[in-house]
């Protein structure tokens, strides 16, 4: 609840929570919608769809996972379709799939193509979008080949990635801010991390930066996403500054976090632009962000649905 409030006060009036252990995130989303607490409009995936023994298996001890009957764990096409339906029944209004098995560039996807197709079919049958969490090239490209709506991280993308993104009109969502944080951790001389850990995470940073620049050159659809939590919640706008530093125009960076992000989550008929019949979500800044993108980090006022939720103006 506190993080939701911080996110709204940081200028983000609508978000997509792409992974949460347990079901409390659904209660937070519903409480915001009911006006009981302050926060952004929210889509929530809940538990990530993942295979038995795969990545994220260590979120909880095995006996606890078994006791809780985590519905998102699945094996085989039929079971993976069930996992999607179970997640939606629990409250998910978007589906995220952990296709990456680890952080290496050459690791295979955790799921086979047939399983990914079953996941996509089950989600789309319910009118719900499905996004992959992919680091390695295979864990990025295989879900795109299965018809997924987008990929988050996209660390080690290649030419095929951008061809699939264009072919499927899917969204590329690089989490550059998280990559910046792990680079800072890897470069910290006082950190007690191992040399192998430092090398791996520096590779992740440089891989994601290279993929982001290649995606811009390829002209694919890029939406804003930060993997929030690596920086304190509410500081999401730092990534806009980072995107500009890496070569994106301020105009395109702002579009990635407004109209393009709205389209990526399927809410572009309601949010993402100041237009008739859309929610009056407005960020009031001290100057022109097209000239100084850093202004987005310190909004003077935040208006959500026509209501002023933050007002730091002097007059």
Automatic annotation (TrEMBL):
Residues 3-309 form the Amidohydrolase-related domain. Coiled coil: none annotated. InterPro entries: Amidohydro-rel, Metal-dep_hydrolase_composite, Metal_Hydrolase, Metallo-dep_Hydrolase. It holds the Pfam family Amidohydro_1. GO terms for molecular function: hydrolase activity, acting on carbon-nitrogen (but not peptide) bonds. The keyword Hydrolase applies. Keywords: Hydrolase. The keyword Signal does not apply. SUPFAM superfamilies: Metallo-dependent hydrolases. This is Amidohydrolase. It comes from Luminiphilus syltensis NOR5-1B.
């Amino acid at each position: 609840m506190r993080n939701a409030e911080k996110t709204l006060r940081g200028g983000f009036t609508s978000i997509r929570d792409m992974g949460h252990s347990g079901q409390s995130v659904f209660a937070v989303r519903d409480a915001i919608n009911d006006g009981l607490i302050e926060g952004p409009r929210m889509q929530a995936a809940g538990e990530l769809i993942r295979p038995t023994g795969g990545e994220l298996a260590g979120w909880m001890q095995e006996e606890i996972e078994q006791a809780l009957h985590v519905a998102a764990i699945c094996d085989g096409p039929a079971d993976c379709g069930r996992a999607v339906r179970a997640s939606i029944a629990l409250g998910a209004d978007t589906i995220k799939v952990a296709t990456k098995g680890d952080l290496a560039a050459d690791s295979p996807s955790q799921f086979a193509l047939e399983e990914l197709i079953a996941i996509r079919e089950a989600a789309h049958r319910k009118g719900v979008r499905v996004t992959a969490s992919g680091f390695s090239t295979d864990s990025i490209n295989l879900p795109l080949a299965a018809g997924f709506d987008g990929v988050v991280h996209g660390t080690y993308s290649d030419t095929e990635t951008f061809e699939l993104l264009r072919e499927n009109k899917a969204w590329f969502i690089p989490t550059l801010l998280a990559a910046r944080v792990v680079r800072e951790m890897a470069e910290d001389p006082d950190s007690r991390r191992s040399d192998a850990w430092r090398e791996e995470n520096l590779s992740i940073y440089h891989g994601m930066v290279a993929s982001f620049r290649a995606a811009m050159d390829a002209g694919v659809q890029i939406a804003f996403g930060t993997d929030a939590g690596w920086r304190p919640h509410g500081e999401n706008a730092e990534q806009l500054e980072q995107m500009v530093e890496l070569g994106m125009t301020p105009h395109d960076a702002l579009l990635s976090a407004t109209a393009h992000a709205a389209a990526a989550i399927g809410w572009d008929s309601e949010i993402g632009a100041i237009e008739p019949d859309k929610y009056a979500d407005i960020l009031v800044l001290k100057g022109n962000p097209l000239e100084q993108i850093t202004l987005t980090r310190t909004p003077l006022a935040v208006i959500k649905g026509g209501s002023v939720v933050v007002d730091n103006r002097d007059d």
